[in-house]
Specification:
By secondary structure, the protein is α/β, with parallel strands linked by helices. It is built from twelve helices and 13 strands. The chain binds nicotinamide-adenine-dinucleotide and thymidine-5'-diphospho-beta-D-xylose. The site of thymidine-5'-diphospho-beta-D-xylose has 16 residues, from α7 and β8.
């Protein structure tokens, strides 16, 4: 079996669902269930005996060690993190605790677990660290996309904490021989995306008749990847990645935030037309420019040459089809969207006053 951390979050739950569709191998899902973790994401596999949920904190080394020695997974795939840049700006402490100290605890537990394994099992064991393109910092308009050799230059408490985790993973490979792999992926979108993030937030606010908040001039660029393509890439890296190596993953879909908002409004106009005073209206009318995010990275773009060349991975979802599928999914899961929006705002609001 494999063990995933953070498997009740956005990417982790997509990964667990995908994994069980394609494999008979069981999954241990170790998750603290923060505001971003939601077992409803996994309701489809509620009674599937191949999925075992363990509620736990990755900062708790003893609990992880006990989980590893009970289930004896052949791999750890580490998704668990605090993942929202705006929250990291308001209150960095949880990012330091989970992303840095939590990854350290997990590495320690994995190191001791590994040393207890037989030669054959140790040889097969993998520790796959799921990271982000944000560790490379911000690109200018004419800069080449990030490659695996781009120097780290994180700009937010979130990306700095992910960079620290990546360095620890690297050090555990070089110093202790832990069989690690790291992936640095660009912005994901798709089902179960938590509605504090840009794409689901725009969809949720559009449907609720609220303003669609665009930071600054709306010209910041992200490289969007459909979450299912990310899951495929992770499986590929787990199966064929070279130990100690880093693989960048991206969608080669660079879009400004304003373009993304326009695309979402146009899809919604098509699927669920808005009634204006004179009988016609467009969701674009709800777009509102607001104060920029402090330290807002201007542009991300990822060079995916290495994973394509060495592991034969290629993104299969086009941006157009992925966005349509995503909007459709949210329209079909409005209860999920409303429940997540309410839960997230309550928690976020509580913290704003801290
Ligand atoms: P998410 O915030 O949706 O989910 C995070 C999950 O981790 C939740 O289920 C949460 O309960 C769990 N978690 C948080 N702290 C924990 C702790 N201390 N112990 C155990 N579980 C804990 O995040 P996501 O968007 O799914 O991102 C998953 C991973 O992928 C993260 O490491 C993130 O940095 C990385 N990543 C995300 C994106 C993206 O676009 N979302 C892109 C590249 C990389
Ligand atoms: O209300 C908003 N208005 C707005 O203009 C929000 C929430 C965001 N934005 C902008 C900021 C970014 O330029 O949209 C862009 C995307 O923002 P987020 O969805 O918050 O994502 P980002 O900050 O790019 O980080 C995401 O991608 C990389 C994930 O949250 C990270 O976990 C991942 O590592």
């Amino acid at each position: 079996m494999i063990l995933v951390t953070g498997g009740a979050g956005f990417i982790g739950s997509n990964f667990v669902l995908d994994w069980l569709k394609q494999s008979d191998e069981s999954v241990i899902n170790f998750d603290k269930l923060t505001y971003a973790g939601n077992l409803d994401n996994l309701s489809m596999i509620k009674s599937d005996p191949r999925h075992k949920f363990v509620k736990g904190d990755i900062c708790d080394t003893a609990h992880i060690s006990q989980t590893l020695s009970t289930y004896k997974p052949r791999a750890v795939i580490h998704f668990a993190a605090e993942s929202h840049v705006d929250r990291s700006i308001r209150s960095p402490i949880d990012f330091i605790n989970t992303n840095i100290n939590g990854t350290f605890s997990l590495l320690e537990a994995a190191r001791y677990y590994c040393s207890s394994l037989s030669d054959v099992a140790r040889e097969a064991f993998r520790f796959l660290n799921i990271s982000t393109d944000e560790v490379y910092g911000s690109l200018g308009p004419d800069d080449a996309p990030f490659s695996e050799t781009t120097p780290y230059a994180p700009n937010s408490p979130y990306s700095a904490s992910k960079a620290a985790a990546d360095h620890l993973v690297r050090a555990y490979h070089h110093t202790y021989g832990l069989p690690t792999l790291t992936t640095n992926c660009s912005n994901n979108y798709g089902p179960y995306h938590f509605p504090e993030k840009f794409i689901p937030l725009i969809i949720a606010n559009a449907l609720a008749g609220n303003s669609l908040p665009i930071y600054g001039d709306g010209q910041n660029i992200r490289d969007w990847l459909y979450v299912g393509d990310h899951c495929n890439a992770i499986r590929r890296v787990l199966a064929h990645g070279k130990l100690g190596e880093v693989y960048n993953i991206g969608g080669s879909n660079e879009r400004s935030n304003l373009e993304v908002a326009h695309i979402l409004c146009d899809i919604l106009d098509d699927l669920i037309p808005k009634r204006g005073i004179d009988g016609v209206g467009t969701y674009r009318d709800q777009i509102t420019y607001i104060t920029d995010r402090p330290g807002h990275d201007r542009r991300y773009a990822v060079n995916v040459g290495k994973i394509e060349r060495e592991l034969g991975w290629k993104a299969t979802e086009s941006f157009d089809s992925g966005m349509k599928k995503t909007v459709q999914w949210f329209l079909e899961h409005r209860d999920w969207l409303m429940a997540s929006t309410e839960g997230g705002h309550k928690e976020y609001g509580d913290r704003i006053g801290d």
